[in-house]
Amino acid sequence: MIRKLMASIREYKRESLLTPLFVTLEVILEVLIPFFMAGIIDIGLANADMPYTIRMGIILAVAALLSLICGALSGKYAAAASSGFAKNLRKDMYYRIQGFSFSNIDKFSAESLVTRLTTDVTNVQNAYQMVIRILIRGPVMLIFALIMAMGINFDLSMIFLAAIPILGFGLFFIAIKAHPHFEKVFRTYDQLNGVVREDVTAIRTVKSYVREDYENSIFKRISEKVYERFVSAEKIVAWNSPLMQFTMYFAILLISWLAGELIVEEEMTTGQLMSMIVYATQILSSLMMLSMVFVMIIIASSSAERIVEVLSEESDLKDPENPVNEVADGSIDFDNVNFSYSGDISKCSLKNVTLHIKSGETIGIIGSTGSAKSTLVQLIPRLYDVTSGTISVGGRNVRDYGLEALRSQVAMVLQKNTLFSGTIKENLRWGDENASDDEIKRACILSQADEFISSFPDGYDTYIEQGGTNVSGGQKQRLCIARALLKKPKILILDDSTSAVDTRTDALIRKAFREDIPNTTKIIIAQRISSVEDADRVIVMDGGRVDAFDTPENLLRTNRIYREVHDSQMKGGEKK
User: Residues 243-277: pLDDT tens digits?
Assistant: First the structure.
C-alpha cells in the first residue's frame, strides 16, 4: 500500500527530503540550547563571569535564531510536499477512474469515488505532512534529548526508557481498537454523500412534492450515524493523551524528586537540574507529537486503503495488443450473446441474443421496463463486455478494436442526458472539438435544436448551467442528439432520447436521419410505437430475450407484444 501511495510523490521528492533535513537541524539546535543555558547558570552566573555569560548568551541567541529559520523552512517544504502529493494523488485517481468501465464504477459507486477523491485524500495529505515533519521531529528529539539527559545523569535518564515501552504498548492497543471504527466512518461518509448528491440533483422534484421535511429526516439520520461512529472511534483514541501525559508527568515528578536529593548531596548542580527538566519536557513534547501523528495515521490508514483500492483497480475493458483502429461500416452482429452485470452466467440480464443488423439500417427496439433494452445497446460500444458469445461491428469482434477507435464510431445518446456547464457550442464540441460553426449548426438543424437555440439572445453562445438546468428536457435531448451527430458516427444509438419531445418534432428528427445520414446505422429505443413504426426492422425485447425481430408491418401481424403496444397507444390516441 505504501509503495502505491508513494508513487504519487514524483516531482515533490526534493521537498519531501528537505523537510526532515531541516527538522533534524532544528531539533539538534533546540536540544543544544538547554546545554548552553546550564553553562550560563553553573559557570557564568555562579562565578560572576560576565564575559563567559555574554559569549554563551550570543551562542544561545544564534542557536535559537538558526533553529527558528530551520523550523520555518521545514514548515514551508512540508506544506509544498504534502500539497503536491495530494494534487498528484487526486490526479492519479481521477485518471484511473476515467479508464474504468461501467462495471468498475458500479463496484465503487459514484458517491464513494467522490469521497475518496476529497475527504480521503485530505486525510492522507494531512498524515503525510505530519509524517515527514512531526514523525521525524519526535523521534529525533527523543533520541537527542535522551542522549543529553544521559550525559547529565545516566541513572535518572533510565526513567524515560522505562516509560517508553509502556506508552508503546498502550498506543498499539488503541490503534487496533480504533481502526475498524474509522473504516465504518468513511463507509458512512459514502452514504452521506449519496444522500446529498441525490437530494441536490433532484431539488426541483423535492420542492414540487413538498418533501423537504422527509429529505431532512433522511439527512439527519445519516448525519447522526456519522456522528455516532466518529464518537465511537474518538472515544478509543481519546485514551491516547491521558495515557501519555500520566506516564510522562509521573516520570518528570520522579526525576525532580530524585534530582532534588542529588542537589542536596551536591552530586548535581542547579543548572543540570534545569537542563534535565527541559530535556524531560522535550521528551514529553516529542511523545505528544508522536501521539498526534499516531492518531492522524489511524484515521488516514482507512482513507489510504480506500485510495489504494481505486489505484489498484484494473479496468474490465482493455485494448488488445494490436488493436484495429478503423471501423469498416455500421453493421452489427450479436452471436449467442449472454450478459450478466455480476459476471454470474446463471443471473443473465441478456440471454441467447443473436441479431444481424446491416449497415445503414434503422432499427427500433421496444419492450417493457426491465426487458434489457439499454443493456443490449451498451454492449455495442463496449461500455460493458459480454459474459459469453461475441458482438461484431463492421465485421470485426468489438474486442479487436481499440476502445477509442470503436467509441468514436458509435455515438450514444443515453436515457439520462447530461450537459456540462459552459456555452452551447462548448457542449456540442464534445462530439468533435474541432467542429466548425457551420457543422455545429447543421447538426442542430438535423436534431431540430437550431430553432430554439436561435431564439436565445446569445444563440449558440448561450451559457448552459451545470446539468443543463436552464433548458427544458426536450431541449436538452435535442442538444445531446446534435452532440452525437457531430461525431459523424457509423452507428448512432438513441436510448429513449426523444421521450421529452413532441411527436411532430420526433417525426422531423427521424425524417432528417433518413434523408441526411442514410449510411449511418440508427438504433432507436423508444416507448412510443410511432418512434419505431417507420424503422426498417424492430427488435421486440422481453425478459432479456429477443422475442421477435422483423419489419413493423410483419410484427403487427405476428407478434403479440408489438401488437398490444401498438393497439394500446393507437386506441389511446383515438380516445383523445
Answer: 777 877 787 788 778 777 777 777 777 777 777 77
Q: Which cell goes with 461?
A: 453562445
Task: Give the Cα separation of 392 and 283 in Å (integer).
Answer: 70
**What is the pTM assigned to this prediction?**
0.68
Nearest to 446 by CA among 421, 411, 403: 411
Residue with cell 422534484: 205
Mean predicted confidence (pLDDT) in 531-541: 93
Average pLDDT over residues 221-246: 81
CA atoms of 95 and 408, how far apart (whole Å): 19
Long-range contacts, 110-117 (Cβ 8 Å, 24+): 110/197, 111/190, 111/191, 111/193, 111/194, 111/197, 112/190, 112/193, 112/306, 113/310, 114/193, 114/197, 115/186, 115/189, 115/190, 115/193, 115/306, 116/303, 116/306, 116/307, 116/310, 117/90, 117/93
Contact call for residues 418 and 467 (beta carbons, < 8 A): yes
pLDDT at 465 over 50: yes
Average pLDDT, integer, range 185-197: 78
Give me the amino acid identity at 358.
Answer: K
- Comparing C-alpha atoms, which of 384, 369, 451 is closest to residue 415? 369
Question: What confidence score (pLDDT) does residue 572 get?
Answer: 52
| pLDDT at residue 541 in the model | 95
pLDDT at 70 over 90: yes
pLDDT of residue 82: 94
Looking at 7-153, list the stretches that DSSP marks H as alpha helix, in order from N- to C-terminal side.
13-39, 50-98, 102-108, 110-115, 121-132, 134-152
Residue 86 has pLDDT above 80, yes or no: yes
The amino acid present at 274, given as its one-letter code, is M
Q: Give the ranges where 349-456 is alpha helix by DSSP (H).
A: 373-378, 403-408, 424-428, 437-446, 450-455
- The helix (H) or strand (E) run that includes residue 222 is helix 212-237
Which three cell numbers mark 428? 456540442
Q: In this structure, what are the phi and psi dihedrals at residue 494, rounded to the nearest 5 degrees? A: -115, 110
Contact 341, 299 (CB under 8 A): no
Q: Would you state the cell numbers that stand for residue 164, as one nine-digit string?
A: 517508553
SS3 438: helix
> What pLDDT, on the 0 to 100 scale, is given for residue 176?
77
Taking the C-alpha atoms of residue 355 and residue 399, their distance in angstroms, rounded to an integer, is 18
| Run of H or E residues at 391 | strand 388-393
> Pairing mode, if any, of strands 521-525 and 362-367?
parallel
Collapsing DSSP to helix, strand or coil, 538 comes out as strand
Range 66-69 contact pairs with CB under 8 angstroms and sequence separation of 24 or more: 66/25, 66/29, 67/25, 67/26, 67/29, 67/30, 67/33
The grid coordinates of residue 349 equal 440480464
Give the rounded distance of the alpha carbon of 32 from its chain centre: 46
Amino acid at 148: M
| Residue 117 per-residue DSSP state | I
Q: Residue 177 above 90 pLDDT?
A: no
The Cβ-side half-sphere exposure at 143, using a 13 Å CA radius, reads: 9
Cβ–Cβ < 8 Å for 30, 67: yes
Residue 434's contacts (CB-CB under 8 Å, 6 or more residues apart) are none
Question: What is the SS3 assignment for 367?
Answer: strand
Q: Does residue 575 surpass a pLDDT of 60?
A: no
**Cα(13)–Cα(58) distance, integer angstroms:** 36
Confidence of residue 192 (pLDDT cuts 50, 70, 90): confident
Cα dihedral 561, 551, 530, 547, rounded to 10, equals 30
